[in-house]
Amino acid sequence: MTQDKRLTTTAGAPISDNQNALSAGPRGPLLMQDYQLLEKLAHQNRERIPERTVHAKGWGAYGTFTVTNDITQYSRAKIFEAVGKTTDLVARFSTVAGEQGAADAERDVRGFAVKFYTEEGNWDMVGNNTPVFFIRDPYKFPDFIHTQKRHPRTNLRSATAMWDFWSLSPESLHQVTILMSDRGLPTDVRHINGYGSHTYSFINARGERFWVKFHFKTMQGHRHWTNEQAQEVVGRTRESTQEDLYSAIDTGNFPKWRLCIQVMPELDAEKTPYNPFDLTKVWPHADYPLIEVGIMELNRNPENYFAEIEQVAFSPSNVVPGIGFSPDKMLQARLFSYADAHRYRLGTHYEALPVNAPKCPVHHYHKDGPMRFFANNPQPDAYYEPNSFGGPKEDPEVAEPPLRISGNADRFDHRAGNDDYKQPGDLFRLMTSEQQGRLMDNIAAAMEGVPVDIIKRQIVHFYRADAAYGEGLAHRMGVDMTDIVQYSSAE
Ligand code: HEM
């Protein structure tokens, strides 16, 4: 047999029999020296890694980004350098709450994460299909996620926990309204928008800073399922999104998104009536219109799902010169959380894995640990910094301009003076009456079995956003409107 067809051990030695274990006599027992059997069993025991603590169920593919409009006046990032320039990328979409084996057609926010392999490092845009989020202070994130995951005793998801938390956190109303609307149950991920959601910053070649929001507009249009349709789909297949994305790309039907930005001059942030770094708010498009930047296309399926999609590691901390952070408290916490999760989930040198490795030179002085399979820097004596042996050095040219901040260090009440009702109310008023009806039906269904005090507390929030929103829910839940009106005006 030719060597390239021969089955081998992990050490490369040829295997003579892969069907029959080595035993003492035909009936056994087995011999300890059958290291090939031991190797097989030991590897099987190590085939699973911790699933992502959130966004465990996901679907991914490779693609390209092509610049269609010159935005160099806002950002010096190489990816935007010239119209027509293309950059390779990998994208992963996900649901938030379900485990790795969860059904795809569930009502949930969809994750929308893209890693752009730029010449000056990887830029990760780790967003969702919603422009806002449930909370604005990261201190509350683990509590919020606990309400989305399983109850410790019943091991079931708990509608009571969800509505208890949301009704005690009025800042969630905007995102809850989106989640319960048509957009909360997309048919697949080709038919969703993506949003960076947070405010990020752009720095141009003159060292000027702008605040920016990212929008990926689906070019396939939006498609949704009703709860009833989704139930029928899940009864047929739990993998509807995986099937849709994989087969679309496999048959050359490549999905595309138009990347657009909203840009705010740095000093405007001191003038807007809302906090532009509040993740529960959108920026009005009338004040900050969308500017097209380019087209993202997905055009290649991964060869190995585990190696390339399960092991892909996205982090909002992965920015490149010309793209930076903002004071958004949620974003600041995420800058810590993701790389920490990756070191736990994948191991110290996870960025050397092919799907995570930048496609530009990488020079750092981090040393050993799991997965240290990459070579030394070309200068073997330069293994610390500073050194006299020609090792890599910092480049002051990529420094950002200083950021002006002010105020005392304190635990500021993030709800003080914040209007949690106007934007969700505007969104409700923007919907057709059919859309409003479906939104309220979905909420009523999701509230089934929740204690009445919690339901009333939540209906007060709907009522404050729009009287018809509150009344519609009170009617559906059999709650007396006078209770709601009294409670709402008592506070
Ligand atoms: C995944 C933390 C808010 C989008 C994750 C993971 C963690 C995490 C630990 C798993 C990472 C991994 O194992 O690879 C947090 C914290 C948040 C937060 C602490 C708030 C303080 C958000 C927000 C968005 C978002 C606001 C969207 C705007 C995502 C996405 C993924 C993810 C898309 C999956 C990435 C992938 O496909 O690998 N988050 N998250 N998260 N998060 Fe968040």
Automatic annotation (TrEMBL):
<keyword id="KW-0376">Hydrogen peroxide</keyword>
<dbReference type="InterPro" id="IPR020835">
    <property type="entry name" value="Catalase_sf"/>
</dbReference>
<keyword id="KW-0574">Periplasm</keyword>
<feature type="binding site" description="axial binding residue">
    <location>
        <position position="338"/>
    </location>
    <ligand>
        <name>heme</name>
    </ligand>
</feature>
<dbReference type="InterPro" id="IPR002226">
    <property type="entry name" value="Catalase_haem_BS"/>
</dbReference>
<dbReference type="InterPro" id="IPR010582">
    <property type="entry name" value="Catalase_immune_responsive"/>
</dbReference>
<keyword id="KW-0349">Heme</keyword>
<dbReference type="InterPro" id="IPR040333">
    <property type="entry name" value="Catalase_3"/>
</dbReference>
<dbReference type="GO" id="GO:0042542">
    <property type="term" value="P:response to hydrogen peroxide"/>
</dbReference>
<comment type="function">
    <text>Decomposes hydrogen peroxide into water and oxygen; serves to protect cells from the toxic effects of hydrogen peroxide.</text>
</comment>
<feature type="compositionally biased region" description="Polar residues">
    <location>
        <begin position="8"/>
        <end position="22"/>
    </location>
</feature>
<feature type="active site">
    <location>
        <position position="128"/>
    </location>
</feature>
<keyword id="KW-0479">Metal-binding</keyword>
<dbReference type="Pfam" id="PF00199">
    <property type="entry name" value="Catalase"/>
</dbReference>
<feature type="domain" description="Catalase core">
    <location>
        <begin position="8"/>
        <end position="393"/>
    </location>
</feature>
<keyword id="KW-0560">Oxidoreductase</keyword>
<dbReference type="GO" id="GO:0046872">
    <property type="term" value="F:metal ion binding"/>
</dbReference>
<feature type="active site">
    <location>
        <position position="55"/>
    </location>
</feature>
<dbReference type="GO" id="GO:0042597">
    <property type="term" value="C:periplasmic space"/>
</dbReference>
<comment type="similarity">
    <text>Belongs to the catalase family.</text>
</comment>
<dbReference type="GO" id="GO:0042744">
    <property type="term" value="P:hydrogen peroxide catabolic process"/>
</dbReference>
<dbReference type="GO" id="GO:0005737">
    <property type="term" value="C:cytoplasm"/>
</dbReference>
<dbReference type="GO" id="GO:0020037">
    <property type="term" value="F:heme binding"/>
</dbReference>
<dbReference type="InterPro" id="IPR024711">
    <property type="entry name" value="Catalase_clade1/3"/>
</dbReference>
<dbReference type="InterPro" id="IPR011614">
    <property type="entry name" value="Catalase_core"/>
</dbReference>
<dbReference type="InterPro" id="IPR018028">
    <property type="entry name" value="Catalase"/>
</dbReference>
<protein>
    <recommendedName>
        <fullName>catalase</fullName>
        <ecNumber>1.11.1.6</ecNumber>
    </recommendedName>
</protein>
<keyword id="KW-0575">Peroxidase</keyword>
<dbReference type="GO" id="GO:0004096">
    <property type="term" value="F:catalase activity"/>
</dbReference>
<feature type="region of interest" description="Disordered">
    <location>
        <begin position="1"/>
        <end position="26"/>
    </location>
</feature>
<keyword id="KW-0408">Iron</keyword>
<dbReference type="Pfam" id="PF06628">
    <property type="entry name" value="Catalase-rel"/>
</dbReference>
